[in-house]
Amino acid sequence: MAPVDATTEQIPVRVFGGPTALIEYGGLRLLSDPTFDGTGHYPTPGGPTLTKTAPSPVEPGDLGPVDAVLLSHDEHPDNLDRSGRALLADVPLTLTTRGGAARLGGTARGLAPWESVRLDRPDGGTVTVTAAPALHGPEGAEPISGEVIGFLLTSDDLPTVYVSGDNASLDLVGEIADRFGPVDTAVLFAGAPRIQPLFDGALLVLDGAGAAEAAGILGARRVVPAHCDSWAHFTETREDLVAAFEAAGVADRLQLD
């Protein structure tokens, strides 16, 4: 099969605040980390209370049919809130961590890093979804922050899409690039979230500078930023991310609308 011309192929991606993005890929509609609750204070199990500062611009019912949810992890309300949990009951498949699938039940299926599943495309082909490794904080964070994955979307006639999930590790981005790079479209979670005194205030997800570096490591033609607004523990705004990409000389890769 002839190689895909990634300079002309465009994969529609729409971000709805926080980590929630709708990706249309091979005729499938894939939704990342659904969060639709209003502003307010949301406790985490055994952890800090997180404050949502802006509502979602859409309601779940506005989305239309969703073929699968790509859920980086289920433990934190800024990645899966009450409205998002309710949505899962109406979605044919939720791909998430193995632990998350056990907790969620229903149509949730757990994937370990580098494990793949094939989804049937409406045109008769398939899309392969591969779980990408992710680290939600500094080295050794897993016992506190939990298990997290990202996702890689591939198909024979389509460019590669990477959805980072809540990842703070550029070393893992390098591993992903070694296996799948260059990627065409990277949906990068950023926002530089920090929670004092957790991990002495270390980054829980990439900041703008880290996202710009990740774009270079991945060789990404297009970067769609997510997870950089709507929560008080995000210490950088979307404007900060744009400034970081401008400083790195890669602002032309950003898709901001």
From TrEMBL:
Biased composition (Low complexity): 38-51
Domain of life: Bacteria
Keywords of this entry: Hydrolase
Metallo-beta-lactamase domain boundaries: 29-227
InterPro entries listed in its UniProt record: Metallo-B-lactamas (IPR001279), RibonucZ/Hydroxyglut_hydro (IPR036866), UPF0173_UPF0282_UlaG_hydrolase (IPR050114)
Protein's UniProt keywords contain Hydrolase: yes
GO molecular function, one term: hydrolase activity
Sequence segments annotated as region (Disordered): 36-56
Transmembrane segments: none
Any matching Pfam family: Lactamase_B_2
Protein name as catalogued: MBL fold metallo-hydrolase
Protein species of origin: Streptomyces adustus
Highest classification ranks of the organism: Bacteria, Bacillati, Actinomycetota, Actinomycetes, Kitasatosporales
